[in-house]
Design goal:
Elements: E1 6-14, E2 17-23, E3 28-33, H1 39-49, E4 66-73, H2 78-86, E5 94-101, E6 107-111, E7 114-116, H3 118-128, E8 129-132, H4 143-154, H5 157-204, H6 210-222, H7 224-240, H8 245-258, H9 264-293, H10 298-318, H11 323-389, E9 396-407, E10 410-419, E11 427-428, H12 429-432, H13 435-449, E12 457-461, H14 469-483, E13 488-491, H15 495-498, E14 503-512, E15 515-522, H16 525-537, H17 543-554
Parallel strand pairs: 3-13, 3-14, 8-12, 12-13
Antiparallel strand pairs: 1-2, 1-4, 4-5, 5-6, 6-7, 9-10, 10-11, 14-15
Helix pairs in contact: 2-3, 4-11, 5-11, 6-10, 7-9, 8-9, 11-13, 13-14, 16-17
Length: 555
């Protein structure tokens, strides 16, 4: 059972249509009517919800807006659900597309009452409706569809999905490798300079706080003579003078201790003087020790000056103030050099991975190519046989499968070539086929792949141009078969095609007030027979025409 995609079409205030409401069947819907009755107007209105440009010239009543609304059943179409998700639209089982044209000329489009732009509208409608009109640039001329036909006939959907997964992995690995190479190029630009800076700091081999400590040591050495003089004087006055302070304090303490027992506070004073005497004695010892350690060392001063000179140059070059900051820079440079090595290792590994996946991609692409090439000739034979049936006995289809660069669908360039007159000069379809030829060619091809490709609603406008009789009947047979798998809507002038309809709609003009309006109605069986008989022999059909029409409808 086909998916019922376009359930209902409502049109208001469009051209000579006041208001129409059409409920379509799931199978073959045929629309007939006299020339000028408004069949093309129906297609124009439908085109609005498919994303065509709007024009205020279509307004029947200039002070009212024109509204065209289509109601579609999704039927579980994954591509439509993915479109809704990608465009932040709520996914529902039923989709209502509405297009409004205001008297001011402003046009608006809505999907389930959410405003969308024309690009979004075209993207969605292309998934729901496949409209074939004369002079259109049809998808039959597009290489993606041509390749899809071969893949559908080959039944290699699983292989194609496996290939596309591998191809995506290859692309991702190649992008990652390219990123690593960009990093390497950037690193290489800075590598020599960073290596120079690193080696310079590495050669200096600074330790934590070294420059600060050397600066302090240098100050000590430069003032060593003054320090020793001061220390010597202090020691002399404390221990070795004519009246050393330590000795004097000891004598004073002795005098006080003699009378300490006679006054309560003298004992405490004595203890304090004893502590001071001991502290001065200790200070004298420390002074003597330090004096021994301090010495003027010209060689050491020279060493420190050289070391500090190196350090200060590095501080100035890197714009920092401390040894710690230089050591941080040293660590950063070391990290950058290590990153360079890691990138090189990553590139080596990445190249192997890209090559490995590419080999798998190429192998899978070869499988796809072999299957496509195997389907080329059978497709040509089947389509050319059908072309004869639909009134194109001299037309030929040639399927060309040529090598191409790897892409998301393999390594093939698929091109459908067409020769309309047995000239043996095959050209791409989009260049040589007329509108009617394209429509019938597309019908033939889609009838072959309808079970394999998830086709949307198929609408054929004027597919019967230039044919009649048996060819028209064959077109009807093919449409009928196609409609068993997909919803089909066909506008036709041929009774042989109308006779195959599951639902037959008749477009007519009627006088309403002082105006002529277009209307449409679904015909019952007797009305169908009459309408088809009129298509066969005129407004007043003959008994033979009525009998012939009955056979077409009931046979």
């Amino acid at each position: 059972m086909p998916t019922r995609m376009l359930q209902r079409l409502q049109i208001q205030n469009y051209a000579i249509i006041d208001a129409l409401n059409i409920d379509f069947s799931q199978r073959l819907n045929v629309i007939t009517g006299e020339t000028g009755a408004g069949k093309s107007i129906l297609m124009g209105a439908l085109s609005l919800i498919l994303g065509d440009r709007a024009d205020t010239a279509v307004l029947l009543q200039r002070d009212k807006k024109s509204v065209v609304e289509g109601v579609f059943a999704l039927g579980g179409k994954k591509e439509v659900a993915a479109f809704f998700t990608a465009n932040d639209l709520d996914v529902e089982d039923e989709v209502v597309i509405r297009r409004e044209i205001a008297p001011s000329g402003k046009s608006r489009a809505f999907v389930n009452d959410t405003s969308v732009n024309l690009e979004q509208l075209r993207g969605l409608s292309s998934l729901l409706v496949d409209l074939h009109r004369q002079f259109d640039t049809l998808e039959l001329g597009e290489s993606d569809f041509q390749r899809e036909v071969l893949d559908a006939l080959a039944g290699q959907g699983t292989v194609l999905e496996e290939y596309r997964g591998l191809y995506r992995n290859w692309q991702a690995a190649a992008r990652e490798l390219a990123t690593l190479r960009e990093q390497q190029a950037q690193f290489n630009k800075e590598l020599d300079y960073n290596k120079f800076l690193f080696d310079e700091l590495n050669e200096a081999s600074l330790r934590e706080n070294e420059l600060e400590e050397l600066d302090q040591e240098l100050k000590l050495l430069n003032n060593s003579e003054g320090i020793k003089t001061a220390l010597s004087k202090i020691y002399y006055d404390l221990q070795e003078g004519e009246q050393p302070l330590v000795q004097q304090l000891r004598s004073l303490l002795h005098s006080l201790q003699t009378y300490a027992g006679y006054h309560a506070e003298l004992s405490a004073l004595a203890e304090r003087m004893s502590s001071v005497q001991i502290e001065l004695q200790d200070i004298a010892g420390e002074v003597d020790r330090i004096n021994e350690e301090v010495s003027y060392d010209p060689r050491r001063i020279e060493e420190i000056n050289e070391r500090l000179s190196t350090g200060y140059k590095l501080l100035k070059k890197h714009g920092v103030q401390t040894t710690g900051a230089l050591l941080d820079i040293y660590g950063q440079l070391e990290h950058k050099l290590q990153d360079t090595l890691q990138v090189e290792a990553g590139i080596a590994a990445g190249e192997k991975e890209v090559a490995r996946i590419l080999k798998e991609v190429q192998q899978k692409a070869a499988v796809l190519s072999k299957s496509r090439q195997a389907q080329a000739t059978p497709l040509e034979e089947k389509v050319n046989k059908l072309l004869k049936q639909v009134g194109m006995p001299n037309a030929r289809l040639k399927v060309q499968v040529a090598p191409a660069e790897l892409n998301a669908f393999g390594a093939d360039a698929v091109e459908f070539l067409f020769d309309a007159n047995k000239s043996e000069r095959y050209e791409p379809i989009r260049k040589v086929a007329s509108g009617g030829e394209l429509s019938r060619l597309m019908l033939c091809i889609k009838s072959l792949v309808a079970e394999s490709i998830d086709l949307p609603t198929l609408i054929f406008d004027e597919i019967d141009t230039g044919i009649s009789g048996e060819a028209a009947r064959q077109v009807g047979v093919i449409l009928k078969g196609l409609a068993k798998k997909r919803q089909v809507i066909c506008i036709t002038h041929q009774p042989q095609i109308a006779g195959k309809a599951d639902a037959h709609y008749f477009v007519y003009k009627a006088v309403k007030g002082e105006a002529i309006k277009t209307n449409i109605r679904l015909l019952n069986q007797d009305e169908r027979i009459t309408a088809i008989a009129q298509m066969l022999s005129g407004e007043k059909p003959t008994a033979a025409a009525l009998e012939n029409a009955r056979e077409m409808v009931l046979g």
